[in-house]
Amino acid sequence: MRIAVVNNEKGSSVTIRNRFLTAIEGTEVVYDEKNPDMIVSIGGDGTLLEAFHRYVDRLDKVRFIGIHTGHLGFYTDWQVEELEDFIPFLLNDSGESISYPLLEVRLAHEDGKVEKMIALNEATIRRIEGTMTGEVFIKEDKFELFKGDGLCISTPTGSTGLNKSLGGAVVHPRLDTLQMTEIASLNNRVYRTLSSPLLIAGDEWFHVRLDDAYLEGVMMTLDHLNFSLKGVRDIEFRLAKERVHFARYRHMHFWNRVETAFIGWKE
């Protein structure tokens, strides 16, 4: 097995990285940052997102697994104190994995170029100053005319993040769906939106056409990344053909993760 390690720079994560690399010395596990089969993320969910985007071009070839040193770990199965238990599972790996859907974003530039990007959690479009205005289509059909701070489109695994903070539903990651939630929409006689989270089927997609008069200052976030949408008017959000694969050595029920993260009554 060829592995790569991605960690944040916190002292605990660096220490665990060193302990982990020492533990696999002399085994059949080879450290290979360029062509890994497995990505070990050491940190929190933010570190896992960084690892995902670093190796997004190898999604059909790699699996991810996380060792948790942060505050919240939806993507991290192992705790710091479980490192000695984790190593034997890794050394006896037989290809166990679970896959989750991803979000594909297509940006249509004014020069005709179409840019494709992938997100694990969500993408948002917002305007820095003032409100954002645009038509929202579901597939080819116009659905609403949006005016407000912005829109968030999330995957099932990303539904527990910004989407939940905006009042969206928490969605089980086995469902092939995307969810759109509004960010402070303005509703009056001219602009009218559903004003509710919206989930679509796996073979449908969202298309947002920004109003020419409000293009200046529109930004996009893609997970932890952010950039300007200057020169972009049409944006399409659909389920990606690619999927993310996590090595899964023990079953951790999704709803147990949700309860632990947000309720915690069992503690």
UniProtKB/TrEMBL annotation:
Give a Gene Ontology cellular component term annotated to this protein: cytoplasm
Cofactors per UniProt?
a divalent metal cation
The catalytic activity of this protein is classed by the Enzyme Commission as 2.7.1.23
Q: Where does NAD(+) bind?
A: 45-46, 121-122, 147, 149, 184
What is catalysed by this protein? NAD(+) + ATP = ADP + NADP(+) + H(+)
Where's the active site on this chain? 45
Major subcellular site? cytoplasm
Question: Could you tell me the keywords of this UniProt record?
Answer: ATP-binding, Cytoplasm, Kinase, NAD, NADP, Nucleotide-binding, Transferase
What InterPro entries would the database entry show? ATP-NAD_kinase_N, ATP-NAD_kinase_PpnK-typ_C, NAD/diacylglycerol_kinase_sf, NADK
Q: Does the keyword Transport apply?
A: no
Among the Pfam families in the record, one is: NAD_kinase_C
Gene Ontology biological process terms from the UniProt entry: NAD+ metabolic process; NADP+ biosynthetic process
Q: Where in the cell is it found?
A: Cytoplasm
Listed GO MF terms:
ATP binding; metal ion binding; NAD binding; NAD+ kinase activity
Q: Which domain of life is it from?
A: Bacteria
Is tRNA-binding a UniProt keyword of this protein? no
Q: Please give the family membership noted in the entry.
A: Belongs to the NAD kinase family.
Function noted in UniProt: Involved in the regulation of the intracellular balance of NAD and NADP, and is a key enzyme in the biosynthesis of NADP. Catalyzes specifically the phosphorylation on 2'-hydroxyl of the adenosine moiety of NAD to yield NADP.
Q: Which HAMAP family match?
A: NAD_kinase
Q: What is this protein called?
A: NAD kinase
Organism, scientific name: Aerococcus christensenii
* Gene expressing this chain: nadK
